[in-house]
């Protein structure tokens, strides 16, 4: 088994992935409350809106809390946090694929899902 150091490529990849999958979900989760980056409710498929009680913005508040918790979980337990983020991204992908016009964002999220799975695997070392 290789010794992991700060100069080891696997260690560097782990640190990069852990950092981005901690910071991004927390920041995007916080933005669900303020809509500074984008008007988040437009990304909610109508069929999901019909399931979640309240307005689309209320659904985004719930999404925001989940994303913040996922980011904190990645920081504390990257092996499990990476899996939670990957599962969450899968849900986002399903939502986007049922909402015309956002297929490019869904494709981007497939890449992020793979990155979250890679983080989980690297955390297993």
UniProtKB/TrEMBL annotation:
Residues in a coiled coil are: none
Location comes to: Membrane
Key word Membrane present: yes
Q: Which InterPro entries does the UniProt record give? A: DoxX
How does this protein sit in the membrane? Multi-pass membrane protein
Asked if Transmembrane helix is a keyword of the record, the answer is yes
Keyword terms: Membrane, Transmembrane, Transmembrane helix
Please tell me where this protein is predominantly located.
membrane
Superkingdom, taxonomy of origin? Bacteria
Residues passing through the membrane, by range: 15-38, 58-76, 83-103
Q: Which Pfam families is this protein grouped with? A: DoxX
Protein name per the record: DoxX-like protein
Q: Name its species.
A: Lentzea atacamensis
């Amino acid at each position: 088994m290789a010794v992991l150091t700060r100069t080891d490529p696997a260690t560097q990849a782990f640190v990069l992935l852990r950092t981005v999958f901690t910071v991004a979900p927390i920041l995007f989760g916080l933005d669900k409350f303020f809509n500074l980056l984008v008007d988040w409710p437009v990304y909610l498929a109508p069929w999901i809106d019909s399931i979640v009680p309240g307005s689309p913005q209320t659904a985004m508040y719930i999404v925001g809390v989940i994303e913040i918790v996922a980011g904190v979980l990645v920081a504390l337990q990257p092996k499990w946090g990476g899996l939670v983020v990957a599962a969450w991204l899968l849900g986002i992908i399903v939502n986007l694929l049922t909402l015309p016009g956002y297929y490019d964002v869904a494709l981007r999220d497939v890449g992020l899902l793979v990155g979250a799975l890679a983080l989980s695997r690297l955390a297993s070392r």
